[in-house]
Amino acid sequence: SEKLHVSQPSLSKAIQALERSLGVTLIVRTSRSFQLTYMGEQLYEKGREVVRLYEELSAQMSDLPGRASGFLRCGIPPVLSTLLAPYLLIDFQRRYPDIRVETPEAGSKVIGRRLLSDKLDMALVMGPADASAFRVSPIVSDVLALAMPEGHRLAALKSVEVDELRSERLVLLDESYQLRESFESACARRGFEPLVAASSASWDFLITAVELGQGLTVLPRPILRDLRPGLVYRPLAGEDMRWNIVAITRRDRYIPHI
Q1: Where do runs of H (alpha helix) occur along 147-197?
Q2: 24-33, 114-123, 238-247: which has the minimum mean pLDDT?
Q3: Global pTM?
Q4: Residues 6+ apart with CB under 8 A from 132
């Protein structure tokens, strides 16, 4: 009753009227609490879907191409927050000044779950993405690279095979990142498990850890193009060592014009 801003007796009467109309009991009442009956649970779940469809229909009716205004929630991984997102957003907001964009940050796997739970409208994530759940559009493609001190034995190579990392201590992005899962899967296909000395959600932390001799790190090449003095990077060889950024939206939802 507080959420609906109506009195408690009025809400009770409305529920009772609904029960009489349907000919079923929806709520088991006691003096201190209540719980839904089986039929109440069924009505609740179906009702949520009815409300969602109604809201979607309302959005479609008001979603005319000429009305470029509204609110857009676009999830992004932190590694994109300085590399890509600002440039995309500046251009987007120049074209569509009446659309307000929010860009919550999280790892690609976390972002995917948020999109499926309707907490986001779209997202930029590292591929691969589940094409059965999402519409997927390619945005950027590059390679993963290994950052190391310039005197490291692997710095003499033009590119580094993943097999070369069998005995190397590594500092990697944490498990909320698709990059971490993709790299560990690539190692598994080559018959070994990487020696992970530390994990972090911050690529700045990882690069500092490399500077301090804690291990080597694997990051997208665009992040490593302006490394601090004393550090170098080499691209990782192999088609499974690519860094692919894709835009995703829910496949089972209407996608608003904005």
Answers
A1: 178-189
A2: 24-33
A3: 0.63
A4: 251
Using a 10 angstrom Cβ sphere, with 0-12 exposed, 13-18 middle and 19 or more buried, the burial of residue 170 is buried
Grouping H, G, I as helix, E, B as strand and the rest as coil, residue 56 is helix
* Nearest partner of 218 among 229, 227, 206, 230, judged by Cα: 206
Q: How far is CA 56 from CA 25, 100, 133, in A?
A: 30, 20, 18
Q: What is the pLDDT of residues 42-98, one digit of tens each?
A: 999 888 888 878 877 766 666 655 556 778 888 988 777 777 777 777 888 888 888
Task: Give the mean pLDDT of 118-135.
Answer: 87
Q: What is the pLDDT of residue 110?
A: 86
| Residue 228 CB-half CA count within 13 A | 10
How far apart are alpha carbons 165 and 54 in whole angstroms? 54
Q: How far apart are CA 154 and CA 168, in angstroms?
A: 10
